[in-house]
Structure to design on (477 residues):
């Protein structure tokens, strides 16, 4: 095929070349069996700079029309044709170009491979099957007839469930809430997404804990939100760090997980809670309080939440049933000022017109029954026993790891004494049949591991740590 460039028109020469090659591919004038002219050869033939040809080939490669094979040449991409000899979209390019960023490959690996046969899962942040209230749910289905309307629900979620949540947070967390201040979400993660999407804009700056679950979420980067890091110690984040960041940057929002924080398991001190609320009021910084673990306190000491201490409506409160009842229910909620809840509800309606009726119905029945308190009491006992099993197993690594003992929640944050690449350690551990979460997925510092004791039982936890110990001691050998 002969290429012709018209220097008398305004269209850039590289663009003319791109269009001619693309038309040649579509028409079949360019053969897939023969390489395209080399960059140097085509530049000489057309009497143009080689950089012009390079730019044209770069664009053709970017849209999937050509492939460059090192040492062989530049060829037409054979994957662009379907059976009918029509163009097939370059799906790989679309996958890469989406504005909603994917999870890190290692996060995807953990989610896809941790439930393989023989693998002991110390990474997944959910409850074991024997901790779920399946018997109580079966009783609810037996004793109650489902007679709910199966159309679209109220924009805020089922009214009965929202009323029950108001009673629930009053009983357990000393929070006075009206149903119109509650939005039902598909778990806490959707709540965070709605807040970022509806209340922030690209370029805004937020502060998150370091380490934290939020650190692993690509949602902030996807929407162009800048994140500042607040170190977490045994008493939570330090209010002085918040004030220092506020003086240097304009913080638009503060994301905190004060009770049995994921991943450190720490509980923020009362003094720090008070000081953070004071800073929120002083600078007008909204606080997003993520509270999935409050009820799991092994001693039964619940609260106070930041929301229960908030007298100025500065706190948006997120909670769910995922960590205390069942993650598969996908029942979460946001509590906040009515105008904010209305805005978030509108965003939710644009996504899926609200939550499914069935899980809301059973969640309402269970939350409003005496069985809920019994379930939570038993859950605390079981989680404490599993935490103790994990600590007992880690005693065999006393010279190799250090940790704080959590008093609730489902996670233990572990510092590995020797300098180590925890990503490579995970690969070695998974070969041995045990998974954990490398610390760098959840924070800026290296050399940490998060173990979850809510997923397994005592025997599997101890065996898992034994396998981890083998991997740790053989690392680098």
């Amino acid at each position: 095929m002969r290429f012709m460039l018209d220097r008398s028109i305004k269209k850039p020469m590289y663009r003319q070349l791109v269009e001619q090659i693309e038309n040649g591919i579509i028409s079949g004038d360019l053969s897939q069996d023969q390489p395209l002219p080399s960059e140097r050869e085509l530049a000489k033939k057309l009497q143009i700079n080689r950089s012009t040809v390079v730019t044209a080939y770069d664009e053709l490669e970017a849209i999937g029309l050509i492939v460059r094979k090192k040492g062989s040449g530049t060829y037409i991409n054979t994957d662009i044709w379907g059976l009918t000899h029509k163009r097939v979209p370059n799906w790989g390019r679309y996958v890469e170009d989406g504005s909603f960023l994917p999870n890190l490959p290692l996060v995807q690996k953990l989610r896809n491979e941790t439930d393989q046969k023989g693998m002991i899962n110390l990474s997944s942040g959910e409850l074991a099957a024997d901790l779920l209230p399946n018997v109580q749910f079966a009783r609810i289905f037996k004793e109650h007839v489902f007679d709910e309307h199966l159309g679209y629900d109220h924009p805020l979620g089922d009214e009965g469930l929202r009323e029950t949540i108001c009673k629930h947070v009053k009983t357990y967390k000393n929070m006075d809430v009206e149903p119109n201040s509650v939005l039902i979400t598909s778990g806490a993660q959707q709540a965070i997404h709605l807040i970022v999407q509806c209340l922030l804009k690209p370029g805004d700056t937020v502060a998150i804990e370091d380490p934290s679950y939020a650190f692993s979420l690509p949602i902030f980067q996807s929407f162009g939100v800048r994140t500042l890091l607040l170190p977490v110690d045994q008493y939570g984040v330090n209010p002085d760090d918040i004030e220092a960041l506020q003086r240097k940057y304009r913080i638009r929002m503060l994301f905190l997980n004060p009770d049995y924080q994921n991943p450190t398991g720490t509980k923020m001190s009362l003094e720090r809670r008070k000081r953070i609320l004071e800073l929120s009021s002083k600078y007008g910084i909204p606080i997003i309080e993520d509270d999935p673990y409050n009820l799991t306190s092994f001693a039964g000491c619940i609260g106070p939440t930041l929301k229960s201490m908030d007298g100025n409506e500065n706190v948006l409160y997120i909670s769910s049933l995922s960590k205390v009842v069942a993650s598969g229910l996908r029942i979460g909620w946001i509590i906040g000022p009515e105008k904010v809840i209305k805005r978030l509800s509108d965003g939710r309606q644009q996504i899926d017109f609200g939550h499914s009726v069935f899980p809301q119905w059973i969640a309402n029945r269970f939350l409003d029954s005496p069985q809920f308190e019994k379930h939570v009491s038993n859950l605390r006992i079981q989680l404490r026993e599993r935490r103790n099993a994990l600590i007992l197993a880690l005693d065999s690594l006393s010279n190799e790891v250090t940790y704080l003992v959590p008093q609730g929640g489902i996670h233990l944050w572990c510092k590995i004494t020797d300098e180590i690449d925890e990503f490579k350690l995970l690969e070695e551990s998974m070969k041995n049949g045990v998974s954990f979460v490398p610390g760098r997925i959840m924070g800026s510092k290296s050399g940490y591991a998060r173990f979850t004791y809510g997923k397994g039982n005592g025997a599997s936890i101890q065996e898992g740590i034994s396998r981890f110990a083998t991997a740790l001691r053989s690392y680098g050998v």
In short: Residues 13-97 form a domain with the Arc Repressor Mutant, subunit A fold (CATH 1.10.10.10). The first strand starts at residue 66 and ends at 69. The mean pLDDT is 91.
